[in-house]
User: Fold this.
Amino acid sequence: MNWASMLEPLVLLVAVLLALGMVRLGALQYGIVAPRDAEAVPLLHVLGAATGVAAGVALLLSMPDLGAFNPARIFSADSPWSLTLGGILGGYGLPQAVTLRSLIAALGGDGSLAQVAAGWLAVAGLVAGTGLAWRLWRGRDRLRALAAFLLLATWTALILHYAAHLAVWTLTQLNFWLFAVALVLFQRWRARAATGGH
Assistant:
């Protein structure tokens, strides 16, 4: 057994811990920045998360190589996901400039229907969240509510973007083990179906 195969589980753990760290950091920042009475207005939190999901989906749909998520390419010999942890973080930890340019072009109508719809949903969420913060709070609390909303939307979009790439990358790292787990689950299902029928 070589060192690379022994380190694979550790590398996967580090990648997952980074995602969990992003979630924790985003929640911590939101809690620090949001006004004290923000919990009394759950719509601020809901709008922030929904706007982030729409922005995250729009970012994923704006990727230049969306076909990399095709299962046939994920498990192919020349898979674009045959990357190290550094490769996945450097290439996909944050949206690439070409993805952002594609998203901006989609807002002008130059893109697929799903890409344009997701982009404009994100814009609508930004407008609604800004309007909510502006209407319900005054003074410094207004700015804090707006900053908390924008932080939540941004972190949600970035986490969704990273999590989608992490999930596919993890599949490629564990492809043999996934087959073994699927086989065990199938055997358990078959055994349960056989005993349930008698």
